[in-house]
Design brief:
Belongs to the small Tim family. By secondary structure, this protein is mainly α. The protein is built from 2 helices and no strands.
């Protein structure tokens, strides 16, 4: 499950942030985009997990 989530995260953020052929390093804008994308992905995942847990507890 974790490996699948990491793969999805990598694929999603790569497709969104890397717009040209990768070189030896990321541009400043690519690096910033990747950091923001990963943070949003993790925040969203954590939010969804918490919502599911709260629903289970309240049932």
């Amino acid at each position: 499950r974790i490996q699948s989530t990491i793969h999805q995260l990598t694929s999603t953020c790569w497709d969104k942030c890397i717009t040209s052929a990768p070189g030896n390093s990321f541009s400043r804008s690519e690096a910033s985009c990747l950091v923001n994308c990963v943070e949003r992905f993790l925040d969203t995942s954590l939010y969804l997990v918490n919502q599911i847990q709260n629903k289970r507890v309240s049932q």
